[in-house]
Amino acid sequence: MRLPPCPHLPPAPAAMDAGHLTAHGTARDEAFYLTALTYGQYLWQRGLAARAILCVDRALGADLRGGEPVLRDWPLPYATLGWMLRHVPAEIFIGNPRVHYQHLADRMNEPRREQRRWRAWAAWAITRRFRPEFAADPKHAVIEPDEATIALKLTTHGLPGEATLWRNSLEASQ
Question: What is the pTM of this model?
Fold first, then answer.
């Protein structure tokens, strides 16, 4: 199934595979970020929505400082996630992103544990807002943060303006 492109992601080439991501080795820099977003678009357009969302996760884990030129054109992909959740056709499998982000946030490791952890909670909140039918994992005992706490932690651990970017993405669900 072919899907229309996500307007929040860069255009994808005609051919791409996971090797484009692994070519970066352990680097999680600006180039990795752009590749993750581009590969996410490639997968999305081919109807591989769950894998595309995982690429968005990979992009959120990139080691960026806020001044990278790529962020002017392709800001952190909170709006991307919301758009994907809203536009994925019902017949395409995406699993349960709420549970995915709940587990990811609660089990995050270094590097930049706190930054990546709160980005996972931010993605969790977007999922709850855009797709409230997804249930939490009842077997995973975790304290789910409220949106004010997520915003505070993104302000503390994220890039300049990240909390505002996230809040604007949340408001798009209204």
Answer: 0.96
For residue 111, say if its preceding peptide bond is cis, omega within 30 degrees of 0: yes
Identify the helix (H) or strand (E) that includes residue 97.
helix 97-106
**How many whole angstroms separate alpha carbon 17 and alpha carbon 42?**
9
Q: What range defines the domain where residue 135 resides?
A: 19-171
- Three-state DSSP class for 131? coil
CA 173 to chain centroid, in Å, comes to 16
CA angle 56, 130, 134 (to 5 degrees): 90
Contact between 51 and 43 (Cβ < 8 Å): yes
pLDDT digits over 113-161, tens only?
A: 999 999 999 999 999 999 999 999 989 889 999 999 999 999 999 999 9
Q: Is residue 12 part of a domain?
A: no
Q: Is the residue at 120 inside a domain?
A: yes
Q: How many domains does the chain have?
A: 1
Determine, yes or no, domain membership for 5: no
